[in-house]
Amino acid sequence: xxxxxxxxxxxxxxxxxxxxxxxxxxxxxxxxxxxxxxxxxxxxxxxxxxxxxxxxxxxxxxxxxxxxxxxxxxxxxxxxxxxxxxxxxxxxxxxxxxxxxxxxxxxxxxxxxxxxxxxxxxxxxxxxxxxxxxxxxxxxxxxxxxxxxxxxxxxxxxxxxxxxxxxxxxxxxxxxxxxxxxxxxxxxxxxxxxxxxxxxxxxxxxxxxxxxxxxxxxxxxxxxxxxxxxxxxxxxxxxxxxxxxxxxxxxxxxxxx
Length: 257
What we know:
This protein has one domain. The protein is built from 13 helices and no strands. Helix 1 (2-17) packs across helix 6 (92-112) and helix 3 packs antiparallel against helix 6 (92-112). The chain is mostly helical. The longest helix is centred in the last third of the chain and has 27 residues, at 230-256. It starts with a helix and ends with a helix. The chain has helices spanning 2-17, 20-40, 51-69, 74-79, 81-87, 92-112, 116-124, 136-142, 148-173, 179-196, 208-214, 216-224, 230-256.
């Protein structure tokens, strides 16, 4: 794993050495904030809840993550540097895991930038009648009306969803030398199972359990409601593992041809 972490540091540094990180992350934060405030008007709704912010955060991850992962291997193929990497004493597994960890870390930065919303809601959610009866931190935790367990599970869900889409994007990027194709491929492969959870009422009754299990949105929604179920964790782990396996297989096949 030492090689994998070294590659992850190299890739993460490359993200911040280029404009990509400074463009993608702010765009994500602005989109989440704009849609949460414009369509849901979370601060005027009179309810202290992060459900609206979590919905838009999850939806825009489907756009953010493919934009981050599209260059992971496609850029290496285009520049020919993949040939140099193949001569180094690095296993394909370490290369794939390292690049995945770097992408997942950058996605996590974007997600953590939205922590200002629960903090602001907690502060604004404290009733004026108790504003001077207890210390600030006690009021923030006990009187704000914000369910901290739900918030914690929601952020766990966002991190797992982002990692799952990063796994998909890593696998797709390893299959093509075109960044545009890698972006569109990861977007479509992620968007279909995400949207599937929103249209379960259109699915035949016999197929609903299968559609639920295959839906990225359904598993995230469980976590966003504060339900920490091992089945959701296993599902996201399986998606990540499948995406990374596809990437390793693509690299091994490329080396043999």
